[in-house]
């Protein structure tokens, strides 16, 4: 990555364990697309909360912003479905969902580029 990973916590205190998990997930993303130039991950409580302590029952919202040459991608954990919001009371599940969405986007781009390359050689 050309620009170091940025991790931002909003509405909750910084967590070394969450930061470590994000670093692992970003390393995995780089396996799907080796040309990631920047990545920013925002971890926050889903609704407006002025305290910096996460309260039980409040879902996390994770946003993953990735830059690759020619494209800016964003994936989030919050899709608004009540069942997903309930599951996202666990930061690990919210991280899993956001990064799975970004993984799909990167795979789609890689597949599309392979298809374009293949078509160009035919």
CATH superfamily: Ribosome hibernation promotion factor-like
**The top level CATH class name:** Alpha Beta
Number of strands: 4
Name the helix and strand elements from N-terminus to C-terminus, one letter apiece: EHEEEHH
The shape, in one word, is: elongated
The CATH topology annotation reads as Double Stranded RNA Binding Domain
With strands numbered from the N-terminus, the spatial order across the biggest sheet is: 1-2-3-4
Integer tally of domains: 1
Oligomer: single chain
Uncertain residue segments: 48-54
What is the overall number of helices? 3
What is the CA–CA distance across the termini?
33 Å
- CATH architecture descriptor: 2-Layer Sandwich
The portion of residues forming beta strands comes to 15-25%
Q: Mean pLDDT score, rounded?
A: 85
Q: Helix- and strand-based class? A: alpha+beta
The largest sheet is:
4 strands, mixed
Whole-number radius of gyration? Answer: 16 Å
User: Helix content range of the residues, please?
Assistant: 40-55%
What does this structure look like?
The chain has 122 residues and is of the alpha+beta class. The chain has one domain: Double Stranded RNA Binding Domain. The chain is 44% helix and 23% strand. The protein contains three helices and four strands. It has a four-stranded mixed beta sheet with strand order 1-2-3-4, covered by helices on one side. Strand 1, helix 1 and strand 2 form a beta-alpha-beta unit. The chain starts with 5 loop residues before the first strand and ends with a helix.
